[in-house]
Amino acid sequence: MKLGIFGRPIGHSRSPFLFSRLGRLLNKKMSYKAVEVKENDFAATAKRSRKEKWRGASVTIPFKREAARLADRLTPAARAIGAVNVLRFEVNSKISGHNTDADGLLDALKSAGVVMSGVHVLVFGAGGAARAAGYAVAKGGAKTVRFSNRTASTATECVRDLAPNFPRTSFSSGAPRNADIWINATPLGQNGNPDKSPAPKSLRAPGAAVDMVYGKKTAFQRHAERLGARTFDGTAMLVFQALRAYEFWDRPFGPRRRALLAATLIKELS
Q1: How confident is the model at residue 147 (pLDDT cuts 50, 70, 90)?
Q2: Of the residues 29, 64, 143, 196, which is catalytic?
Q3: How far apart are CA 110 and CA 266, in angstroms?
């Protein structure tokens, strides 16, 4: 099975290592190539990969919204979120787009014992990752979800697009407010970006703080820890969304096998 990942920059990605290990665990022959996509070349790159008989590809920043526009068919999650992190090349030359970031985050939170039902969630950011985070916690039963972003209009669009899918969750956007769960879905802390917390010092401690940045202790995590919150980096989410992506390309694992595979892969990445 030929797979890969599209992004820019892509050199820091752990996905090739992750899928190499997954192939061995499954005793499955697969290749997984990291492709740094040039500006304005995303659609052409995807179509070249399809012609080279790839089964599919992961998509990372800054192409998740463009991938959603490229796909001929979107899953309900991808359509609601408006961003695609997994493409599948169909035998009829069509491209299907899916979003596994949401279920990946939901899996990670559940595995860590984080309760989402009835809680208030504050999401920092308003891009594809933030949209997936909002979708995930609303699916998990959050009472309120608030998006806080430097560009207010983008946060408002998150509310507009997600709210119709979850009538029992109240969505809002604006300045940060106290919440039970914080989620950092901004570029802050990622390689090549400033390492500072997006959370104002005036906020009280959340019960849990989730950082989508993986493999490092960021200023956001340190800030939340000083307040006494449980903190999680993005490693578990990375693993679970990758497993969900593989299931989209091949066949479902089921909850028990997915959890066992995730535990092994998280240990190897940590």
Answers
A1: very high
A2: 64
A3: 15
